[in-house]
Each structure stands twice: as C-alpha cells, then as structure tokens.
Specification:
The structure is a single chain. About 45% of the residues lie in helices and about 20% in strands. It is α+β, with helices and mostly antiparallel strands and about 150 residues long. The chain has one domain: S16 Ribosomal Protein, Chain: A. It has a 5-stranded mixed β-sheet with strand order 4-3-2-1-5. It is flat. The N and C termini lie far apart (about 70 Å). The model has no long low-confidence stretch (mean pLDDT about 90).
C-alpha cells in the first residue's frame, strides 16, 4: 500500500477548505483516509495552516509521499527542515541538541516573518476601507479621466 499525504477538499463552492490527510494512493480525493494531520484554509491572508508536525514527520519517515501542494505546506511549517536535521543526526554530523537548537532558531525567525505578513495584510485592509460617516468624493464632468 502506497500512502500519500494530500489535501481533502471540504467547504462550499468557491470557498475551499482542506483537511491534510494520509490516504492510500488508490482511494479517491475526498474518500477514505488513514489519518488526519491538520487543516489548510487558503482564503485567509496569509493562509491558515494547522498541522501536527510530529505525526507528519512520522508518516514521512514511514515513506508516505506528499503531493506538491502538501510538500509546500510541510516546508512552510518546517517539517521537511526538521526531517533534514534529524537525518544529519542519524548520519552523525551533529548531535540531537544542536539539531533542535537550529530548528527552534529557524522557527522563531519564521514566526516573526509570518506575524509581520499578517500585520501588513491587516494594515493594507484597513487602508482600503472607507472612513465611516464620510461620503466618497464625487467627480465632476470637468475633472480628469474624461474623453479629450
């Protein structure tokens, strides 16, 4: 049985919401699955991802292959980096404590970047919103944009 880590679509029409699941490669996209690893909501800015890192890492070590989109999600959440570091530990390049130190350093930097993106998106959204209680300005015929 070849296991795949893939997205399972939920949500209504034009409002996608996905479960990240481990499933047999022969089962249909929204069909039977082995284990649910998390969720992915692409509609928020930035996209909201809830993922159990440890279970995802276990499945990767068991040989489950992620789809392209799930590979990007696992990379974004640091699961692939953690797998890379643990392989270095197994090969004897460095010890477990050093690997965890590197991962926590990366995780702190990554979380700061994500927080910054969220704040920028919030600021941009606020800037586009009209001021309450104020009418939008009307353009008269003589002002720019007319045929000349």
């Amino acid at each position: 049985m070849a296991a795949k880590i893939r997205l399972q679509r939920h949500g209504s029409k034009k409002r996608p919401f996905y479960f990240i699941v481990v499933a047999d490669s022969r089962s249909p996209r929204d069909g039977k699955f082995i284990q649910k690893l998390g969720t992915y909501n692409p509609l928020t800015v930035p996209a909201t991802i809830q993922l159990d890192r440890q279970r995802a890492l276990d499945w990767l070590n068991k040989g489950a292959t992620p789809t392209d989109t799930v590979r990007r999600i696992l990379s974004f959440k640091g699961v692939l980096y953690l797998k890379h570091l643990l392989r270095g530990v197994k090969l004897g390049l460095f010890d477990d404590a050093t690997a965890m130190e590197k991962f926590t350093k990366w995780s702190v930097e990554h979380d700061a970047q994500v927080k910054k993106r969220q704040e920028n998106a919030y600021r941009n959204k606020r800037a586009r919103r009209p001021i309450p209680g104020r009418r939008p300005e009307r353009r008269t015929e003589g002002e720019g944009g007319g045929e000349g």
